[in-house]
Amino acid sequence: EFRDLLRGIGGAMIGQTDEMVPADRELYALRDTTATVESIPLISASIMSKKIAEGADALVLDVKTGSGAFMQEEAMARELARAMIDIGVRMGKRVRALITDMDQPLGRAVGNAVEVAEAIETLRGEGPDDLRALCLALGSEMLRMGERAASEEEALTLLADAISSGRALQRFREMVAAQGGDARVIDDPSLLPSAPLQMEARAEASGYVQGIETREVGQAAAELGAGRATKESSIDHGVGIMIEKKVGDHAEKGEPLARILARSEQAGIRCVQRIVDAYGLGDRPGSVPPLVRSTVE
């Protein structure tokens, strides 16, 4: 069914199931039990087992580094990328990895439904500049690896045309419908799950954003319910965080740094304080690292 969707529509989403890479569930459990979540051999096995099972001939990997990534040091991210590339090459695949920055949240949305809405905006040609830029960088690599474009310039032209013509959004609509989703959300994102409460995490002093503890932002979103605390936990798709200030931006005292979308007042209050504490403000703007730090082949 997955491959039929790829042939018919050109895209599909799939995760680990009892039939699709069943051993991956055991690998995840092993990483949790043995406190080896950041083990490069186990991460590589987990990721590449799924990629190889999908049947792709070529792979483009987005390997994160920075304060919000498993691999906070770029050298470790490159080591992970090389390990995955080595597995792919041994299996007869062509693999390339981009080492990309996660020293601040990508885009503005942190959560589930809010990130889907942001993805739809980006497919419309809108959305945050950094998210759009990363999508174009990864898409360019994919087109060249798939021999649909001979150069980066040609690939970027093809991608820009797919977005501006509406074809990219239409393809997403077809994929959602084919996989049993509600394709109406493409035209009306308000149909997505939402949270009843909105709160603001406000700057406690004026200054420039010098840094954001991105992992803390992710953990704050998870505490709201956007992620699982345990394997048995359920996910609240409507909660999340909307980033208002990013590295380099100026904030006046009392100005919102982020908006919190919460299910309960108590959870929202806890999240507000975590977000305020995650921001570092100072007299000068913080430096923004390159979005794509390097390429590993």
UniProtKB/TrEMBL annotation:
Family annotation (Pfam families): Glycos_transf_3 (PF00591), PYNP_C (PF07831)
Gene Ontology biological process: pyrimidine nucleobase metabolic process; pyrimidine nucleoside metabolic process
Domain Pyrimidine nucleoside phosphorylase C-terminal span(s) in chain numbering: 208-282
Keywords: Glycosyltransferase, Transferase
NCBIfam families xref list: PRK05820.1 (NF004490)
GO cellular component, one term: cytosol
Classification lineage: Bacteria, Bacteria division TA06
Organism of provenance: candidate division TA06 bacterium SM1_40
Protein name as it appears in the record: Thymidine phosphorylase
Top EC group: transferase
Subunit structure: Homodimer.
Annotated EC: 2.4.2.4
A GO term for molecular function: 1,4-alpha-oligoglucan phosphorylase activity
Similarity section: Belongs to the thymidine/pyrimidine-nucleoside phosphorylase family.
